[in-house]
Amino acid sequence: MSPQEPQNDGELYESQELEYLLPVRSLALMIQGHWKEHAPKRYKEAASAGQLQSLSLKKAEDTHRFHDQLRRSGLDPLQSWSQAMRQVALQLNA
Question: How far apart are CA 78 and CA 39, in angstroms?
């Protein structure tokens, strides 16, 4: 079975497959866009300090790690990804 295909029992993607579908760098760009729209001052400060890329990459990596932790605790893939995005990726603090 390829990573793009859900299993027959309806289970969605495993964590490593989510990484395949939404790589850390792509997620970091989404995070930057979110900050730019919802926290323009924070975005400009990070960009001016040369930290925008490193902060957003760290958030993206933390999001994937938190998703993995939630999956191991028993949440289904979609719920765990949604929760990880809300609690880690989209938080405006670094």
Answer: 26
CB hemisphere CA count around 38 (13 angstroms): 11
At 93, is the pLDDT very low, low, confident or very high (cuts 50, 70, 90)?
Answer: low
Cα-to-chain-centroid distance, residue 33: 13
| Alpha carbon distances (Å) from 6 to 9, 68, 82 | 8, 18, 18
| Angle in degrees, 0-180, between the axes of helices 24-38 and 52-72, rounded to the nearest 10 | 110
Tell me if residue 69 falls in helix, strand or coil.
helix
CA atoms of 56 and 29, how far apart (whole Å): 7
| Helix orientation angle between 52-72 and 77-84, rounded to the nearest 10 degrees | 150
